[in-house]
Amino acid sequence: MCRGNARRKIFLDDDDRYRFLSLLHESMKTYQVSLHTYVMMDSHFHLVVETARANLSEFMRRFNICYTGWFHYHHGTCGHLYQGRYKSCLVDADNHLLELSRYVHLNPIRGRKHHDHPDYRNRLAYLRRYQWSSLPGYLNTNWINGLITYDMIIEMIGGRHEYGRFIIAGIRYGIDDPFENVQHQAILGDENFVALVKSRYIHEGSLRDQPSYRDVLSEKLSLKDVLLCVSKVCSLSVESLKRRRGDGLCRGLLVEMLYRCCGLTLAAIGRFVGGIDYGGVHQLRRRLKRQMNNSERVMEMFYAVETSVKKLCSK
Question: Which CATH code, of 3.30.565, 2.60.40, 3.40.50, 3.30.70, is assigned to 2-173?
């Protein structure tokens, strides 16, 4: 969750909201993140995401920087858009994801003007019309949004009709705030889940102090595997790819695949590809993205490398 600085609005018009969703989609593709639910309010937003590569911090950093840049450019403003760092917690999906999704989806009617309305059907109608959340696609297949991964939550409750009844029950009778049950400031789950997380992933300090667990959670390929895949597609030697002044396009493909498949930080990737810093790796990845957007040949090369890597993963 991110809130506007001093509770000011972070969306001033629909252009902001559409650009927010566009940048969210781009960031999800780049960092291989799945989105289960979201809601955009005037002064804050909630995202329920699944990070297969445990890279939430990098995903949110990129996404928030991009949206802040758009907002200032679009409105001629400057300074802090958000009130500090985003807030997040790790969720025990089996026991809390369903309730959490309902809490997120009921956000637009949580204000006093909706809460005090005597007829729940008016509040339900308002939610159905509210276009800046993932709820419409959960209620009706005609409103499915390609950004959203619906299956996990829909299967938990047995279908869209049942999810609609679940939402109505929440409107009529109220629900508890699931974030009141967050433990250690970062984990939403029962005692067994908390113990599991602490034993597997927390060695020193808190979960919040350790933003990336890709080296623990991802099913990794070796550096050599990825290097050979890129080398083959680019028809370059391994030595040429690792050389600091080597082919920029192919080095961009290499660092992108190392990031996606090997659980490495950008700094570690930089050391592997000739001793460049974090910023240099970031620039290679940005340049590759622009080249892919502008050239079918580059896109084909990327898909060729990706297909080669996926074949290795399936072995």
Answer: 3.30.70
